[in-house]
Design goal:
Number of strands: 12
Structural class: alpha/beta
Shape: globular
Helix content: 40-55%
Largest sheet: 6 strands, parallel
Order of helices and strands: HHEHEHEHEEHEHEHEHEEHEEH
């Protein structure tokens, strides 16, 4: 009995277990855009809500529309307020987090969609956007009638470049003769310019478009609906916004990212490294085809399914390199 009680006491005194069972965890999520953007920030907000269901001890504050110039101050403000975890959702938070994290050793800084990690208290999560793009391109080539597809990115940061390359390579896997058009808005928030550039690609013959970024994606969706072309969504399942336009969405499951790092913080197993999540980790996925189910041939559906299986098993040789 004495030995049994000793084991129980030792378990109770483990930092991770005591923290998980008794301590409220103050978590800040700093977003570069709005939770209503229907893509990158919507996905993060949804992910945080899912994490709260799993870990009810989370007390969460969300800050939206944080510009590049305000990134460092936003992280600093939460750290000074004693938050246990400060999450910067986007590559732009990597440099400021690297700069300030050691000043607040009691706070874990997490950068999402970046490869930024440093001891003792800076970690990152990233997803295999190139793999997602590859699958999305395969779907786009399967439904395109003109043989021309297009990608409109916000700013050419590494994950968006990976997606762009993947989209073209996946499309050529289905149709080697397909033509890929790509352009960048130069902003993550310019809806009007996102729409304008998308219309330009549509006028060049693209009948399937995709877009990566924040609010700029809304511009692409508006253009696709207006011009009656198809769209492959990214990050957040956007079919409800345009069910006759969105063929499917290349999901980036930020709930998995957030649950992973928050769970590791709670149980004291977090490490100052980048956690990279792909299909095998459920970090990316594919939404249903819904209204487009009958517009993809059984042959191409089988090819897409095979691509997904081959990516999981490391058998696709031309996936984009992780930057």
């Amino acid at each position: 009995m004495t030995k049994f009680l000793g084991v129980l006491l030792a378990l109770f005194l483990l930092p991770g277990l005591a923290f998980a069972q008794t301590k409220e965890l103050k978590v800040a999520l700093v977003l570069p855009g709005s939770v209503t953007d229907g893509t990158y920030n919507s996905a993060a907000d949804k992910g945080m809500k899912e994490a709260q269901k799993k870990y009810p001890q989370l007390k969460v504050s969300v800050r939206e529309n944080t510009g590049f110039a305000d990134s460092e101050e936003a992280l600093l403000a939460y750290a000074r307020d004693g938050y246990d975890v400060v999450i910067g959702h986007g590559f732009q938070f990597a440099e400021p987090a690297m700069k300030i994290h050691k000043q607040f050793p009691k706070t874990w800084f997490i950068v999402n969609t970046a490869k930024a990690a440093d001891a003792p208290n800076l970690a990152a999560t990233d997803n295999r956007w190139g793999d997602a793009g590859y699958i999305g391109g395969a779907v786009a080539a399967s439904v395109s009638k003109t043989g021309i597809i297009g990608h409109i990115g916000g700013i050419p940061v590494p994950v968006i470049q990976e997606y762009n390359e993947g989209f073209e390579r996946g499309a050529k896997h289905i149709n080697p003769n397909i033509k890929m058009l790509s352009a960048y808005v130069g902003s993550f928030s310019d809806i009007a310019k996102g729409k304008e550039i998308t219309i330009s690609l549509i006028e060049q013959g693209a009948d399937v478009v995709t877009s990566t970024g924040n609010e700029n994606v809304v511009g692409t969706l508006e253009a696709a609906k207006e011009k009656k072309v198809m769209m492959i969504g990214t990050a957040f399942d956007s079919a409800e916004f345009a069910p006759d336009t969105v063929v499917t969405t290349m999901l980036v499951n930020f709930d998995v990212n957030l649950e992973l790092v928050l769970g590791k913080i709670i149980d004291s197993t977090i490490e100052p490294k980048t956690y990279l999540l792909g299909l095998n980790e459920n970090g990316i996925g594919v939404a249903p085809y819904r209204k487009f189910e009958d517009k993809i041939s059984p042959e191409n559906k089988a090819k897409i399914a095979q691509i997904i299986d081959d990516i999981k098993n490391g058998k696709v040789a031309d996936l984009p390199a992780i930057r």
